[in-house]
Specification:
By secondary structure, the protein is of the alpha+beta class. Helix content is 50%, strand content 10%. It contains nine helices and four strands, in the order βααααααβαβααβ. Helix 5 crosses helix 6, helix 7 crosses helix 9 and helix 8 packs across helix 9. The mean pLDDT is 96.
C-alpha cells in the first residue's frame, strides 16, 4: 500500500492559532465556498460517518472551536483531516512528486540522504508523526509534522556548510539519483519558505 505526502507553505504559528480560535466567519466561508469538497469527503468516509464519526464540517467546527471531540479513537482521523483542510486553505501546496506516491521507508531513506549532506535540522519522516496542535486528539493517519522558520534557516545553513566542504575536497557524498532528487525538492521547499518572513512548512502523510 502506498502513501502520499502533502506539504504546505504557510505561517506555521498563525495556522496553529486557528485551532480553538472560534472563528465562525472562517467556518462560514469554508462551508459556503468549499461545500462540494466537504460533501466529497463525507461520501468517501460515509461508512465511518454511519458508524459515528463526525462529518467533515462537524470535525472542522470542532477543530476551530477547540472541541468537543469524539471519545472514540477510531474517529480521530477526521480532526486530522480537518486541520489539513485549514492548512490547505491558508497555505500554498508545494510540489511533492518525489514523495507521492511512496512506499515503505522512503521518508527515512530521504532523511538519510539529508544527513549525508549534513542536514539534521529537519526531517521528512517528521511529517509522519502526530504533531497536531493541542487539543486535537492523537491519530496515526493523517500523520502531521512541521518545519519551523528557525529549523529551515538552520538546515539551509547546514547545507551551505556541506557545499563549501565539497567544493574544497572535490568529493560529494555518494547518493542514489532518486535520493538526490528528493533532497533537492526538500531544499526547494525550504528556499520558498525562507523567502517569506515567518513562513515554514506543515506536512501530512496519508
Amino acid at each position: 500500500m502506498s502513501s502520499s505526502l502533502s506539504v504546505y507553505l504557510l505561517d506555521v504559528a498563525a495556522t496553529r492559532a486557528l485551532v480553538g480560535s472560534r472563528d465562525d466567519q472562517l467556518l462560514e466561508v469554508i462551508r459556503d465556498n468549499f461545500g462540494d469538497d466537504l460533501a466529497r469527503d463525507d461520501d468517501y468516509f460515509s461508512h465511518q460517518i454511519d458508524n459515528g464519526a463526525p462529518t467533515a464540517y462537524e470535525a472542522l467546527r470542532a477543530v476551530v472551536h477547540g472541541g468537543p471531540f469524539s471519545d472514540s479513537e477510531a474517529h480521530a482521523f477526521q480532526y486530522g483531516y480537518a486541520y489539513k483542510r485549514l492548512c490547505a486553505l491558508t497555505g500554498s501546496f508545494l510540489d511533492n512528486d518525489c514523495f507521492t506516491p511512496h512506499r515503505g521507508d522512503w521518508l527515512s531513506v530521504v532523511d538519510q540522504g539529508l544527513k549525508a549532506l549534513g542536514i539534521t535540522a529537519v526531517s521528512v519522516e517528521a511529517f509522519s508523526h502526530s504533531d497536531l496542535p493541542a487539543p486535537l486528539p492523537y491519530t496515526f493517519t493523517p500523520g502531521c509534522g512541521e518545519w519551523t522558520p528557525r529549523q529551515i534557516a538552520q538546515a539551509l545553513e547546514q547545507f551551505e556548510h556541506t557545499k563549501r566542504a565539497v567544493d574544497e575536497s572535490g568529493q560529494a557524498p555518494p547518493l542514489e539519483p532518486e535520493v538526490v532528487e528528493a533532497v533537492m525538492q526538500c531544499l526547494g521547499w525550504m528556499r520558498h519558505a525562507q523567502e517569506r518572513p515567518n513562513f515554514g512548512l506543515i506536512g501530512f502523510r496519508s
